[in-house]
Design brief:
9 strands, Rossmann fold, two-stranded antiparallel sheet, alpha/beta, seven-stranded mixed sheet, single chain
C-alpha cells in the first residue's frame, strides 16, 4: 500500500479531488488536440484529451503562475540591487515509479506550457542520460540495479542542473537509448537557456547521499523551483508495467538492435512471468526503498487510480 497524504489540518498539503481540481480550469481554450496527445503519451498510457483538459490544463496554468511570480521577484530584486542580470530558467522536477506515467506527464506539460505567452521556450530532460554506461555498471556489479540511485552519475547530473540554473548558454547531457539499453557514445542533448526546463526521472527528489557528498552537499532537487510526484498504488503500477512489457514485444523488443530482442518471441504467459520477475526483484524494491519515500518532498502530488486517471491533486501549502 502506498503512503497516503494526511488530509487533516496538520498536513502541509491541501487536497483537491478530481472534480474540484478540474473546476480550477478557466475559460482558456485547451491548446492541444487529440493528435498532440497521441504523439506525446507513453506506451500503455491511455491519457486522452479529456484527462489533459481536466487535470493538466489547470496544472500547467498553476505552474505558469508560479514561473511568472518568480520572474516578478527576479525583476524586483534586480531593480533593488541595481543589476541587469538575465533571469535564469525555471526548473520543474517530475518524479515517480517506472510505468507510472511520469514521462507522459512531463511531455504533456512541456506541450502545454510552451503555449503560455510567458514561457514559449520549454525544454525537457530525462535523467536516463546520466545513468552510468553498462560497462561501468557491470564493473561495479550494478547492472541488475539500473534505476537505483547508485546507478546514476549523480554528480554529473547535479552539475548539469546547476549550470542550467546558473544561466550557462549551452549545457550538454548524454543520450540514453531504450533500444540498446545503454548510453549512446558521442551523442548529447543540448539545452539552450530555456524559459522552463522540465527534469523527469525516477530519483530526482532524492536528498544528497552521504556517500556522494562533496563540498557543496547539494542534491539535484535543491535546484528545482517546483516539483511533481506522480503516484499510484504499487499493485496498479505493477500491472501497468506488465502490460507495457507485453506491448513492447511487438515494438522495441523486436528490433534487431534491441538489447531485449530475446524477449520478442516470448509467449504471453512467459512474458507475464518475466515481467513480474523483473518488477518484483528490481522495480518494486527501488520504488519502496528509494522512490516512494521522496513523495513527501514534492510540491505537487498527482494521485492516480487503477484506470490511470488522476483522482486527486495534493498541493503543498504556501
Amino acid at each position: 500500500m502506498s503512503e497516503r497524504i494526511p488530509v487533516d489540518g496538520a498536513s502541509p498539503f491541501v487536497t483537491f479531488n478530481r472534480d474540484e481540481w478540474a473546476a480550477l480550469a478557466d475559460s482558456t481554450p485547451l491548446p492541444l488536440t487529440q493528435d498532440d496527445i497521441t504523439r506525446v503519451r507513453g506506451l500503455g498510457d491511455p491519457i486522452d484529451l479529456r484527462e489533459v483538459d481536466r487535470i493538466y490544463r489547470p496544472l500547467s496554468r498553476l505552474l505558469d503562475l508560479y514561473a511568472s511570480a518568480v520572474g516578478g521577484l527576479h525583476d524586483a530584486t534586480s531593480a533593488f540591487l541595481g543589476e541587469r542580470s538575465r533571469r535564469t530558467p525555471y526548473v520543474i522536477g517530475i518524479a515517480g515509479s517506472v510505468a507510472v506515467g511520469k514521462s507522459t506527464t512531463a511531455r504533456v506539460l512541456r506541450e502545454l506550457m510552451a503555449r503560455w505567452p510567458g514561457t514559449p521556450r520549454v525544454e525537457l530532460l530525462t535523467t536516463d542520460g546520466f545513468l552510468h554506461p553498462n560497462a561501468v555498471l557491470k564493473e561495479r556489479g550494478l547492472l541488475q540495479r539500473k534505476g537505483f540511485p547508485e546507478s546514476y552519475d549523480r554528480r554529473a547530473l547535479r552539475q548539469f542542473i546547476a549550470d542550467v540554473k546558473s544561466g550557462v548558454p549551452e549545457v550538454h547531457a548524454p543520450v540514453y537509448s531504450h533500444i540498446t539499453y545503454d548510453i549512446v557514445p558521442g551523442q548529447v542533448t543540448t539545452v539552450h537557456q530555456p524559459d522552463i526546463l522540465i527534469v523527469e526521472g525516477l530519483n530526482v527528489l532524492q536528498p544528497a547521499s552521504t556517500r556522494d557528498l562533496d563540498e557543496t552537499a547539494l542534491a539535484v532537487s535543491d535546484y528545482f523551483d517546483v516539483s511533481i510526484y506522480v503516484d499510484a498504488e504499487p499493485s496498479d503500477v505493477r500491472q501497468w508495467y506488465i502490460e507495457r512489457f507485453l506491448s513492447l514485444r511487438k515494438t522495441a523488443f523486436s528490433r534487431p538492435d534491441s538489447y531485449f530482442i530475446n524477449y520478442a518471441d516470448l509467449s504471453d504467459e512467459e512474458a507475464v512471468e518475466r515481467a513480474s520477475q523483473i518488477w518484483d526483484s528490481i522495480n518494486a524494491p527501488n520504488l519502496a526503498r528509494n522512490i516512494a519515500p521522496t513523495k513527501s518532498r514534492a510540491t505537487i502530488i498527482l494521485s492516480k487510480g487503477a484506470n490511470h486517471q488522476v483522482e486527486s491533486v495534493h498541493m503543498r501549502k504556501l
